[in-house]
Amino acid sequence: MMNRKSGSANDVAVQDAVFDSVAELFAVLSTPIRLKIISELCHGEKSVSQLLEAIDTTQPNMSQHLATLYRSGVLGRRREGTQIRYRLESERVATLCRAVCTQVAIEMDGSATMHPHERLLPRGAR
Q: Most buried among 8, 17, 64, 75, using CB within 10 Å?
């Protein structure tokens, strides 16, 4: 984590901007369907119809979440004939999602008897 006590006022402003940006990204990623969309797009560009085949939701709901991810800069898109194809714009989003989802899956697998709030604690704090 960043240390606010060291550095100049400019460093603090940069740190604040980083935290603001990360918080905005986490807000965009806070919906399970958006994580599913990102997971599907980790395997390559897909059309809306391909995403609908893989994710159980309605077309209007899918379009709304795709628009949110696009506006936030997580996704890019291009028109191919009558279809719009979506892709991940940043590998860092894919890396972040993979890391968090993998860690949560590992903890859930090994902690069936653990209280849910304990799953969020660092291993040494349990």
A: 75
